[in-house]
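Weekly structure sync, notes
Attendees: PL, DS, HV (note-taker this week)

Item 1: Dabb family protein
DS walked through the input record. Source organism listed as Corallococcus carmarthensis. Sequence as pasted into the shared doc:
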Amino acid sequence: MFINLLRFRFKDGVSEAEKARALEAISLTAKSEAVSFSVVGRDLGNPVDGFTHAYCVGIADLSALRRYFDDPLHRAGDLLFLPLVGRLWRMALTDDADPALGGKIQAMHAEKMAGDPEWAALLAAIPDLRLQG
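Item 1 (cont.): predicted structure, written out as tokens:
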């Protein structure tokens, strides 16, 4: 099982209506057939950290992760969501003992970015981006 956890906040000036549309879009992404479980909502961490929302999905294995990356809902959600994000922190977790797993996931992610320059540019344009795992 892989866990992908995002903590984020929207850019200053993003309207409540835009936030609602973006949250709805990523909630649809979280309902992809490749996702085993998900939570999308408020971030309950320390407000000093500057995050207001969180997105967490559980994905069963590499095959499901590939389907998640390739799901048109994922891309469509990100096209609405990413331009509005001012701060994003990502952490990935797993219970899989394969020592090469991190590299396999990073390679899959790099392949997605190389194959979709528009998506990669949106991710790179986030002012405060931190990716871990």
